[in-house]
Design a protein that fits this description.
By secondary structure, the chain is mainly beta. 11% of the residues lie in helices and 31% in strands. Homodimer.
């Protein structure tokens, strides 16, 4: 792999990382009296009608129709890195609402071993007979999305009797958004819906024009200097054999959700200047080159200001009418709004605090997510914190014993997003940009007294030089306070960490996990120790010259289906602003104040604004 730097950009080191989505050994058990215990897993690994196709019995339809066919039209003979592919099913005698088309990858699915794998699907909670093609369908779409299909308005005569048509059939055409996930694909025409699918026709394999094309660059800071940037990309396909873990309950990441992730490369660009613009390309003569990408380095820690965006729980959604196993409907609008922010040149960095892609073991969905964020994450540092849907799994050291990661156990996350952490599976770190010291933690790893993470948190908070970075922002995935779903606030977590946040005078605490926006007072132990006052413009203002406690905000409104607030129950005294709309958090920190806004992704309207002021350090 070669890198072509521009301006003063230099690439001094290249690291080759292999992502192996190793399933975690598990003792997770299903409900002893329920044979199809799907509900136990519904909120953990995203079971949906489309997802459980993998447990449906496979078979060719008992259809003697000789006219059935499926044709695929793309811009060329091979698939591009991104394109909208037109799929036409033809020769249909009786169009049905249960007819649908799926993308299967890789196309050379071997069904011979499916019966032998039946016992490996117990974790999903569905014990039906066989997995579909032994491969997870990447996405599926109803043929009835063509409005002419069910009424057979696209009729074709198959058999003439003189001037009279004895046999006529119907066609339907639908469109799929396809990105380069390296292995060839096949489009398969089914009927029977998602509950009883059987195959009507298959397209045969289609290859990508360049499966080795370097793709999906995103950048991140490696320290607080602003002089070095890490670039992470995906390239090519490698052969892979899985050496299974000693578990009788494997996960989607091991088997039916597995897809070869290719090579993940990271390289460090050095010799840069903070708060400066550069361009880079990545690739090689043999694999191909990317387009030139313009990016911006963040301000160095201790400089006079920083502008950043923050949010949690974004994920991805299809750009076509397809079904996928886990869809976050607000993500597309949020990304479109973020692109406008980044392209304005006024944003220095982005912080995504947990629940990143929601792939949860279905690895192609990481490709779709990385393709979605690349236009923003390749231009400013994209800093992340780990969430439950990246890390949690039974008996693997996570605090919460639910299989929320689908068996990923943080492996894809830490490989795709290599943050400046001390070691693997210790995904906590701090970084300084401008006037802010950011402390990012893992709410999914042990944080109780005596834990390695808590000791690190105390040391990090105590080390902040307020003359250099007057603002201290603390961020993690699960919140300490939420009025829409109080069960998402773990009282043990609050008891373990909240005293240290107050002792070291954390100014702002940001969390996700709950899918809405909620701003609190200066809260400690469930009580408001101080309330904001209105400035001359009517903006809520927290005076941290008279510090009492952190200001908390839940910002998990970036994509996942929103959690609504109660219309009948009054909010608790510490909850000041509650909004269930898709959007993101925008901040501008100087030496004396930090201005914060919740921006609606669809309208760009500012739903909430507040500021924290400080005249002394």
């Amino acid at each position: 792999m070669e890198w072509l730097p521009f301006s003063s950009c230099q690439c001094l080191a290249i690291f080759l990382l292999f992502i192996v989505a190793v399933p975690c050994s598990s003792a997770y058990s299903l409900h002893p009296t329920v044979a199809y215990s799907m509900m136990e897993h519904r909120d953990h690994t995203g079971i949906s009608p489309f997802r459980v196709l993998n447990r449906r019995a496979l078979g060719q339809c008992p259809d003697l129709n000789p006219y059935l066919g499926i044709q695929v039209s793309s811009g060329s003979s091979a698939l591009a890195d991104e394109e909208y592919v037109t799929v036409t099913v033809s020769g249909v005698l009786l169009p049905s609402e249960l007819d649908w088309v799926a993308i299967i990858s890789p196309s050379d699915s071997d069904v011979s071993a499916c019966p032998l794998k039946k016992a490996e699907y117990v974790q999903t909670g569905d014990l039906a007979d066989l997995p579909l093609l032994c491969h997870y369908p990447v996405k599926g779409q109803w043929v009835s999305h063509d409005p002419d299909y069910l009424g057979c308005k696209k009729e074709q005569c198959q058999k003439w009797n003189g001037p009279v048509c004895d046999v006529s059939t119907c066609n339907g055409t639908i469109t799929f958004h396809v990105v380069n996930f390296r292995t060839d694909v096949e489009f398969v025409f089914f009927t029977g819906g998602f509950d009883a699918p059987c195959i009507l026709a298959r397209s045969g394999p289609l290859k990508f024009a360049n499966p080795n094309q370097p793709l999906y660059a995103h950048i991140s800071s490696i320290d607080s200097s602003g002089t070095s940037m890490k670039v992470t990309i995906i390239i090519g396909v490698r052969g892979f054999e899985y050496d299974g873990a000693a578990s009788v309950l494997p996960s989607p990441a091991k088997d039916f959700g597995w897809h070869d992730p290719g090579y993940i490369h990271s390289a460090i660009m050095t010799g840069l200047k903070p708060s400066s613009s550069y361009s880079f390309k990545y690739g090689s003569a043999s694999a191909g080159w990317s387009d030139e990408i313009k990016f911006k380095t963040p301000p160095a820690g201790g400089s006079e200001e920083v502008r950043f965006l923050a949010y949690g729980d974004m994920g991805k959604a299809p750009r076509d009418p397809c079904a996928e196993h886990y869809i976050q409907p607000g993500s597309l609008a949020v990304v479109e709004a973020l692109m406008k922010e980044v392209d304005s040149g006024d944003i220095d960095s982005i912080f995504h605090i947990g629940d990143i892609s929601y792939a949860t073991g279905f690895l192609v969905e990481w490709d779709y997510f990385l393709q979605l964020i690349s236009p923003i994450a390749s231009k400013v540092p994209y800093m992340t914190a780990i969430g439950n849907h990246e890390r949690d799994y039974t008996n693997t050291g996570s605090v919460y014993g639910t299989p929320d990661s689908g068996g990923e156990c943080g492996v894809p996350y830490e490989t795709y997003f290599p943050m400046p952490t001390s070691a693997k599976d210790k995904p906590w770190y701090s970084i300084e940009q401008g006037t802010v010291h950011f402390t990012l933690i893992s709410t999914e790893h042990p944080w109780s007294d005596g834990s390695q993470q808590l000791e690190w948190i105390k040391t990090d908070l105590a080390s902040v030089d307020r003359s250099k970075t007057p603002w201290l922002v603390f961020a993690g995935h699960r919140p300490m306070y939420s009025s829409s779903n109080p069960t998402n606030a773990d009282s043990k977590f609050v008891a373990a960490l909240e005293p240290w946040l107050q002792q070291y005078k954390v100014d702002l605490a940001l969390f996700g996990h709950v899918h809405n926006y909620e701003r609190m007072c200066s809260v400690f132990q469930g009580a408001c120790l101080a309330m904001p006052t209105k400035d001359d413009d009517g903006v809520d203002t927290y005076d941290h010259d008279n510090y009492t406690a952190p200001v908390h905000a839940v910002i998990g409104m970036a994509g996942f289906s929103l959690d609504k607030f109660s219309d009948t129950l009054p909010p608790p005294s510490w909850s000041l602003r509650r909004i269930a709309e898709y959007g993101y958090f925008r901040a501008h920190a100087t030496t004396s104040e930090i201005n914060l806004e919740f921006v609606d992704a669809n309208t760009l309207h500012i739903h909430d604004s507040f500021r924290i002021i400080k005249s002394t350090n």
